[in-house]
């Protein structure tokens, strides 16, 4: 999915990246994630959202950003202690033919996303609502910047949830759950009454979202243990296909299917 690093590199507002994440999740409910290269679909979603917003970006701008992020010199997913890599423009230089090929893929995927979503690209983000709710709660007697920042972190993390929380719940519920989690982390004293009902959120939805938001970090950590290549640069479709083959699955026409025993045995023999 588009991440804040890509939004920053294109000098697009954080809201553009967040909306692109939601658009991409909606699209992948209709088309298989394995149907196209992940970076191409991610770029198309980011380009589409920026295009209809106040800060449009050209296809060349998007190409330059993704070429850099896909290069060995990219700082994407590097640990802070590793420092920034040495600049080498040759590592992400793109020729005119590269640009036109990327532009063709980008525009085709943009059209595909619009078709799959029936041209409904509206996304309501919960961030502004969360700040309004915090003001109503007098910021739970916490420093405004501290608790606001923590709430925003939870809302941004929820964008990466495999449970697709932004697709299953409304913005007001997401905002309320983020406030609840932030208050717990900071030790803020919350109202003794069921204050979330004021924001039209019931206890069951709140509990589900609270657990869902807090579990994202653990899920990502377990994925990295299972698949060490996760987090080492931008994930590519070939890496996922190899992982599927290891698990006895195969991607075909964008869909995954179980390999039959004979085919799986032949693949194991070939790999020896």
TrEMBL record:
Family matches, as SUPFAM superfamilies: Cyclin-like
Basic and acidic residues bias (residue ranges): 258-272
Membrane-spanning ranges: none
Lineage: Eukaryota, Fungi, Dikarya, Ascomycota, Pezizomycotina
Positions of region (Disordered): 250-272
Signal peptide coordinates: none
Descriptive protein name: Cyclin-like domain-containing protein
UniProt GO molecular function: cyclin-dependent protein serine/threonine kinase regulator activity
GO biological processes: regulation of transcription by RNA polymerase II
InterPro entries, alphabetized: Cyclin-like_sf, Cyclin/Ssn8
């Amino acid at each position: 999915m588009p991440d804040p690093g890509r939004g920053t590199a294109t000098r697009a507002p954080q809201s553009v990246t967040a909306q692109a994440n939601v658009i991409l999740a909606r699209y992948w409910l209709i088309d298989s994630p394995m149907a196209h290269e992940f970076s191409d679909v991610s770029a198309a979603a980011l380009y589409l959202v920026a295009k209809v917003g106040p800060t449009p970006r050209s296809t060349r701008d998007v190409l330059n950003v993704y070429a850099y992020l896909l290069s060995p010199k990219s700082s994407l997913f590097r640990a802070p202690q590793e420092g920034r890599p040495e600049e080498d423009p040759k590592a992400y230089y793109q020729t005119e033919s590269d640009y036109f090929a990327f532009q063709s893929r980008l525009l085709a995927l943009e059209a595909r996303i619009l078709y799959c979503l029936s041209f409904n690209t509206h996304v309501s983000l919960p961030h502004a609502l969360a700040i309004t709710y915090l003001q109503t709660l007098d910021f739970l007697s916490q420093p405004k910047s501290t608790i606001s920042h923590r709430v925003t972190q939870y809302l941004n993390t929820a964008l990466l949830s495999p449970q697709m929380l932004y697709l299953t719940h409304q913005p007001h519920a997401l905002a309320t759950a983020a406030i609840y989690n932030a208050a717990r982390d900071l030790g803020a004293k919350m109202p003794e009454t069921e204050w979330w009902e004021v924001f039209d959120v019931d206890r069951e939805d709140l509990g589900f979202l609270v657990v869902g938001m807090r579990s994202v970090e653990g899920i990502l950590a377990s994925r990295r243990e299972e698949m060490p290549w996760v987090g080492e640069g931008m994930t590519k479709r070939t890496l996922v296909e190899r992982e599927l083959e290891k698990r006895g699955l195969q991607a075909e026409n964008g869909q995954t299917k179980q390999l039959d025993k004979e085919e799986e045995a032949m693949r194991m023999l070939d790999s020896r």
